[in-house]
Amino acid sequence: LRKNVEDFTGPRERSDLGFVTFDITADILNGKNATFWNKNTLMLFFIFDWNVKQLFLYLSAEYSTKNNALNQVVLWDKIMLRGDNPRLSLKDMKSKYFFFDDGNGLKGNRNITLTLSWNVVPNAGILPLVTGSGHVSVPFPDTYETTKSY
Amino acid sequence: ACAGGAGGAGPGAAMDLFGDLRRMNKRQLYYQVLNFAMIVSSALMIWKGLIVVTGSESPIVVVLSGSMEPAFHRGDLLFLTNFHDDPIRAGEIVVFKVEGRDIPIVHRVIKVHEKGNGNIKFLTKGDNNEVDDRGLYKEGQNWLEKKDVVGRARGFLPYVGMVTIIMNDYPKFKYALLAVMGAYVLLKRES
């Protein structure tokens, strides 16, 4: 389950900058079937088979603003090689990349959707992009934070 | 010089035979050249056909740097499409050219801002790089646009593109290869 523990925005020059911290719990199983532990756990159905070299996972935030109908910002990514532990249980992660908006669209934006997706990199063949099921909506507050407590 | 004629035939007949032989060889040579031209034309047609079908000006590219490791290494081959209606989305692997530079770059899209009218600007970064690609763009350029895109990576084959890299780095190898191929096609006789 991904949840936002704390979020606030800060303006930098002309654009909004958002800060998000999150937890990721994902289980990319080695078989065709997966069971749900409880209704809040994000389960990814996936097969790490002989033709999968790695997965490139990324957490992206998607939202709309006055300036732009669609915005997507990748906040965090990770390369998972075949053989790595397929269970992710990351807590209190800070985003790897700065969450800048193109303009000031983060302030008061109630609907930022965070989704976990991944790019399957085969040993040879097609490169599909898959979006995990389950996503979280995050609202940003209406005011800017002035303290630098990040 | 006249070869000693066989039997009663005089020098004239021997010349005829010799002339015949030379004529035959010339025809054979023309045939071989036409064969070669046909092979080259077919290859070009297949390439042009790919360009039309995929919508990309360069549907097959070779990875030149290690900036997308461990997914792609130098020498890997990428197959691209560039359909006009395909939107550019975060996480996709795009091949783009910076304005004014010839070399296509293969990196991943990490930021997308799209307006209602379809205008898109996006930012890219190599998986293996610490920072995004702003340093690679033109002076003052902060975003890429659809027009900079050569195509989106849809499929890939490892190692196969190494031949192109070797030919680039060692031009003598390229000429030797072309000479061998040319000689083979011209001299090969269909029995």
List the helices and strands and how they pair.
The complex is a heterodimer of chains A (150) and B (191).
Chain A: E1 4-12, E2 15-28, E3 42-44, E4 52-63, E5 70-81, E6 87-94, E7 99-100, E8 112-122, E9 125-126, E10 129-138
Parallel strand pairs in A: 2-3
Antiparallel strand pairs in A: 1-2, 2-6, 2-7, 4-5, 4-8, 8-10
Chain B: H1 11-54, E1 60-62, E2 77-81, E3 93-97, E4 104-114, E5 120-125, E6 144-145, E7 149-157, H2 162-169, H3 171-187
Antiparallel strand pairs in B: 1-2, 2-7, 3-4, 3-7, 4-5, 5-6
Would you kindly provide a written description of the structure presented here, covering whatever features stand out?
- Chain A: Belongs to the SPCS3 family.
- Chain A: Keywords: Endoplasmic reticulum, Membrane, Signal-anchor, Transmembrane, Transmembrane helix.
- Chain A: Pfam families: SPC22.
- Chain A: Its main location: endoplasmic reticulum.
- Chain A: It is a single-pass type II membrane protein.
- The complex is a heterodimer of chains A (150) and B (191).
- By secondary structure, chain A is mainly β.
- Chain A has one domain: Immunoglobulin-like (Sandwich), CATH 2.60.40.
- Chain A contains no helices and 10 strands.
- Chain A has strands at 4-12, 15-28, 42-44, 52-63, 70-81, 87-94, 99-100, 112-122, 125-126, 129-138.
- In chain A, a hairpin with a 2-residue loop joins strand 1 and strand 2.
- Chain A is elongated.
- Chain B contains 3 helices and 7 strands.
- In chain B, strands 1-2-7-3-4-5-6 form a 7-stranded antiparallel β-sheet.
- The relative contact order of chain B is 0.14.
- Chain B has helices at 11-54, 162-169, 171-187; strands at residues 60-62, 77-81, 93-97, 104-114, 120-125, 144-145, 149-157.
- In chain B, strand 3 and strand 4 (104-114) form a beta hairpin.
- Chain B has 2 domains: 24-54; 60-164, Umud Fragment, subunit A.
- Chain B is of the alpha+beta class and 191 residues long.
- The chains are: A mainly beta (150), B alpha+beta (191).
- The A-B interface holds A 53-54, 56, 58, 60, 62, 67-74, 77, 79, 81, 97, 100, 102, 117-119, 121-127, 129 and B 70-72, 89-93, 108, 110-116, 121, 127, 132, 153-158.
